[in-house]
Amino acid sequence: MDKNTKAAVPNTTVTRNVHDLDAATGNLYESLVVISKRANQISNNMKEELHGKLAEFASNNDNLEEIFENREQIEISKHYERLPKPTLIAIDEFLNGKVYHRNPSKEQ
Length: 108
Known about the structure:
mainly alpha; 7 helices; transcription; Pol_omega/Rpo6/RPB6; DNA-directed RNA polymerase subunit omega
């Protein structure tokens, strides 16, 4: 997911039309499963990315002054807190047709 896509997704809750959600699959619950699985993927990717960036600041010695005064680490954390929630990103991707999904039971 690139930064431009994250910026286009609203940070607050948006009222959605239920019929828009079930248009792609024909079933609202199936659409919600697809969205939830995509949200989990996005959440895991963001978590790995954040832990990778914060691992650079890990040190072997525990000095309280270093922990509280590390501005770069604080800025990185604030950046991730400002991002839209994974669920909002997943809904936006689903409604814009950016999520590939299939149901093997329907294909048989």
